[in-house]
Amino acid sequence: MEDITEREFRELVGFVKANYGINLLQKKVLVCGRLNNYIAQCGFHNFSEYFSHVKSDRTGKSGTILVNKLTTNHTYFLREPQHFEVLGQVVLPYLATVEAKKKDLRVWSAGCSTGEEPYTLAMLINSYFGAQKSGWDTKILATDISTDVLEKAQKAVYPSNQLDNLPAYWRAKYFHKIDSEYSVLREIIRQEVIFRRFNLMSETFPFKKKFHLIFCRNVMIYFDAETKEKLINRFYDHMESGGYLFIGHSESINRHESRYQFVAPAIYRKA
């Protein structure tokens, strides 16, 4: 197959940014490395032929596959553990107090990948509320643009050695060993997470109620400054007063970009 031309590459960059917010301008080597073999395997003779197919596919499936190929979905349980310490010691006690009457805690894991983040949130919330948990609605919305990772997340099957970072009593209470290599999450946690495909670049956020807690970690590293700023402000508009936003430690929010207040590294609050 012929190498991608500069014109073709820039056309792809524009398409992906316009539709998915992802900035690939400095990622030409990555793009070629991840697409060349796939394009050839699909029987296309060159990149233009493949890209024309993607743009003409009204089902959107080809575009989804393209995004799956170009994004990295690396995650694990209790990733960036300082976040979960703050969540358990500061954020949940605060939210449990202010929402004591309604007992309605709305949580969104945006860019949930294969499910480790929202499931960690569900285990922490279940552990925090304990016997009182049945009286609370703490369902977690978990979204991602990749259908591949959402399918894996819904199965909730993970290599047992990937659970090593979790507290021993979590492993015992929330997981069931399938065999010597794999474990599956128990229904008590799986039922707490609702998985949906969602594009953060959608013109509207179709959520009826605002969130108390939004996790969007290591997602905005793919976005340019303008796209990131717009997304952060949309999070703000869809968050309850006093709510918390958690982003990745490799990400930051400039105080001039939004109305969020800095709480701790990669943690922000809506006043």
Report the sheet-strand fraction.
Answer: 15-25%
Strand order in the largest sheet: 6-2-1-7-8-10-9
Q: Are there runs of 5+ residues with pLDDT below 50, and where?
A: none
Q: How many separate domains?
A: 2
Order of SSEs: HHHHHEHEHEHEEHEEHEEE
Shape: globular
Largest sheet: 7 strands, mixed
Topology-level CATH name of the largest domain: Rossmann fold
How would you name the CATH homologous superfamily of the largest domain?
A: Vaccinia Virus protein VP39
Instruction: Write down the CATH class of the largest domain.
Output: Alpha Beta
How many whole angstroms does the radius of gyration measure? 20 Å
Distance between the termini: 55 Å
Number of strands: 10
Q: What is the helical fraction, as a range of percent?
A: 40-55%
Q: Quickly give the structural class.
A: alpha/beta
Account of the protein in words:
The strands form 2 sheets. A 7-stranded mixed sheet has the order 6-2-1-7-8-10-9. It has a 3-stranded antiparallel sheet with strand order 3-5-4. It is built from 10 helices and 10 strands. It has 2 domains: 6-70, Orthogonal Bundle (Chemotaxis Receptor Methyltransferase Cher, domain 1); 81-269, Vaccinia Virus protein VP39 (Rossmann fold), CATH 3.40.50. It is α/β, with parallel strands linked by helices. It is globular. Helices cover 42% and strands 17% of the residues. The termini are far apart. A hairpin with a 4-residue loop joins strand 4 (175-177) and strand 5 (182-185). The model has no long low-confidence stretch (mean pLDDT 92). The protein has helices at residues 6-20, 28-41, 47-56, 61-70, 81-98, 116-129, 147-155, 168-174, 187-190, 225-237; strands spanning 107-110, 140-144, 157-159, 175-177, 182-185, 193-197, 211-216, 239-247, 261-264, 267-269.
